[in-house]
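Thought: the user wants the 3D structure for the chain below. I'll pass the sequence to the structure tool as-is, report back what it returns, then summarize two notable features.
Action: structure_tool
Action Input:
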Amino acid sequence: MGQTTVRVTESTRALLRRLAAAEGRPMQIIIATALEAYRRERFLRGVNAGYATLREDTATWARVTEERAVWDRTLLDGLPAETVETRPGKVGPRRRGRGHGR
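Observation:
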């Protein structure tokens, strides 16, 4: 993995050192973790802004709500939950519903 230099203030470097020491992890990992959290936060802010814009158009939002209702009815299909391998040698219930897909 290549490396480069990034200039930061002394106070930022001191904070980074304290966080790395407290976590028992290298400063590079602390920076990477913080940047990934920031990236995700920005993404979710964008998604939320998109939904806010979508909700402003009442006709379009009504269609979205109707489509969700159709998909929600598929959860009541009466079929038993499937099982999937969660870890090698471990089999657990497969969850069905929103937020559990890939």
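Final Answer: Structure generated. The chain is about 60% helix and 10% strand. Strands lie at 83-87, 90-93.
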